[in-house]
Amino acid sequence: MATLTESDIEKLFSGAPQYFARSEGHYTGAPHPSVAFPWDEKLEIRDLTDHTQVEDKAWGSITAWPHITRDVNSDRSAAQRASEERHRAHFYPRCRERPNMLSMFGLEKGSVGYQAALELAVGDALQEEQWGFESVAARLPAVVEQRQRMLTSKDGLRHVDETIIMEQLIKNGQRYNGKHPRERRASNLLYNELFLHILHPPTKVLDHNDPYSLSVQIMALVKVLAAPNMWIDFSHVEWRIRLGQLLWGAPVEGGAEDGSSIKSEDSTDAIHEERYWLFLQILLACELLVRLDAITEGEELGMESIRPAEIRRFEKDANKSVKWSLIMARVWLENIEVVRTEATEQTSTEEKPSGWIATLKRMSLSRDHSSHGHRERSPVYAIKGKHIQRQVRGLAHFARRLRWPDSDFYVSKISDNCRALAEGIPLTTPLTSPNTRPDSRRSSYLSAQKTDDKPRRTRSRRKQVSAALHPAGWLSKSYVSGLLLPGEGLCHFLMATLLENDPEALSALGTAANLCGGFVYAGKSFWSTACIVGRVLAAGSGAVECMGWISSDIIPQGLGNGWVNVEVDETPEDARQVDKKARLWGKLAIEKESRVLGDVDHASVFPADFIIPFENIYRDGPPPTLAIELKALALWAPADSAPATPADGSQATPLPNVGRPPGVRTYAASVTFTVTDIDSGEAKEHTYALERDINFVTAHPCVPSQHVKIMKSPSSPTIQQVDLSGNGVPGKTASIFGHPLHKYYSYIALHLSELLAKQDASLESHLDSYSSSPHRPSLTPVASKAAKVLVIDCITGFQPQPQEHEIPLSPVISRSDSYASATLSAPFTPGLGNGTENGYGWGAGGGIFESASTKMHSESRRRQFGSDMEILARAFCAEKGWNALISRRRRGCLACAIREAGALGWKVIIRVD
């Protein structure tokens, strides 16, 4: 009964993930959730993740988090170019997308990671739109007033000619790719450029030691960019998507509306002025970012010194909108270049200048020149993508990964179409500066949608994104240019670009799309992971997930080619926990309810306080052997199949002003299974409605401890039942490798067959039966304060489903698959070293190392995982409204999954083989 020492505890929980939620500092919003291995130093353990990597450089902008992209399709020349890229210190604002898009693609198809699961409740999609379609009319007077005040003030923004804007953008692009300004006069040059052409100089000295310093310039730029009601706030999801529409959307002038059209009462002048302000915002953000990079690199090189007071002031004054403008500036400087050509009089008035995205022509210098018949040469500015070929390869990668119909043929066609888009006819749109507009009070080109007086229900965590697709539309231009801001928008742009450049698909599906729903095309179904149908079908064998989209061979009964929207309801518990009420704000509760030592102090930990949890031992004998087969996916149309409407009753968030696509209908979904008892031959049908918008989380991988024998104590009865030697000792259960679980936690394991037999019972009734479970140790108090967890056993006694395309695999598992995201080619044998350190068959660190031979099979293994049984388990939870962790045996142990459920505040774990 001796207590465990601190060294014993660290050894015992070596390789066990621990769950945290910590604030990153002042003015950074909700805490940041993270998973760490504080007692491990090996990189094979510390690098374990519950999500996949970004596999193409073309998709790298999906997140603002620093990350390494594994470019699957990279060639040698690309690698050589990458090695030549500069490695410089950069400024990273403490502001990123929520949820973390790296964590949105869990190792289990259709799931998310721990970070994303907690951040969904404080996600960017929940924020009200600053200039949304429903509020622009009300906010417009404030916007006009603020802009006029800023232009007339002597302590703010000058009136900047459009030529100056474009010339400064060219200079910023050159500086961004150039060397660090090592000479002091460079700071003076930047000062003169800024305060002679863009901003008014400060009215008082801000730094007596160096009035021309970079810090003075940074503070002045922050002040202007932080002005309210003036700039586009890219912290809102809608505006990150609409950036491309504002740049390349064309006003509707009596013609048919398409994907590049913008409806407006007075669109021509309004869109030109909004573009002027957008380019001015891009310029100011680039000016600020270039200076922040310079001062950051100077600090790194020992040439600059940043005072703590300046850092605190910046963090206070640079609000969320300013930091998102910086993120936008980074994407701009990395992916876009502005080029200038001198145009002749004829070129500037008649011919359409070259350029693949948009050509910005300067208007005549003054109206007096026009009235006297003088026409001067005007420079033509074009904005071009730097990495068109990279983006096209990324689109081809996306099509192949999703097994797009006839992908080998269509990939070449799609690539040709995208290259043609890059060389297509430019959109000639001169900027309209504020002084050229006769009426400053006209409405914005973004027209407000009318809303009814009905009270709104709770906001959904996911936006309903509709789009009007059109060949060579602004959606495709946004993707091909690489001007993509972090967040879910990239997933929408990928699918929209794929469809806009596949004429046959666009003809079969129509131009109206619901990018948060799904569609049937060429005998396959494709679903956004924002749709519950996609998240459930992803568990099937052969399903593929790539960048937020699921490809499946399962198609709805009786449904031909076309888009669908699926009607779901938010679970009551999730609806209550949003924004300030979100679980993420409970930092202490998250860490306390997932601690490896439960609720006790380090100094009073006994071996008898722990058990080895298991899910496949039953007091009344083994459960029946089941064979499960999915019979049908059915979509039925409620309310006469009304057009797509979000479940929260609000207006849809459209991309090109199409809030409710007429061709997209709303359905309710259900799946039907045949469950056969192999022993008795009895077969039953079960149908489950996919009516709750639940989430699935991949339980974080762990590495089994080699020191479980520390727990071998007469007062720990469950461990006495376990064969710790791995030699098959008679009278003891099979070897169970994993981490122990403190008696603070309460769980009950139910076989799936028992759950189906009691499918009308509530989750609470299942959990209340834990006191009679044989899984509880005798010393565990009945009145545990910890939340109880239901473990659904989907391992024991299931007839395996045949794999159609089995690939022989090496026992070495790749990093993206963590523990065992594969069907091994040979039976697993405990103690088989396979050249590893810990002697377990799956390799050190869960086999996160990978060789060239295993890397190429990474996604193939992930595709093979799944079965109709796993689809049934997810469908059951979707009908009940149970958020669930997916814990795969040999990837992670049950004890760590139970603790993660405590961190999330969830009560269900689906345990799969």
From TrEMBL:
Residues 426-465, 641-661 are annotated as: Disordered. Residues 429-449 have a biased composition (Polar residues). PANTHER family: HELICASE-LIKE PROTEIN, TPR_REGION DOMAIN-CONTAINING PROTEIN. This is Helicase-like protein.
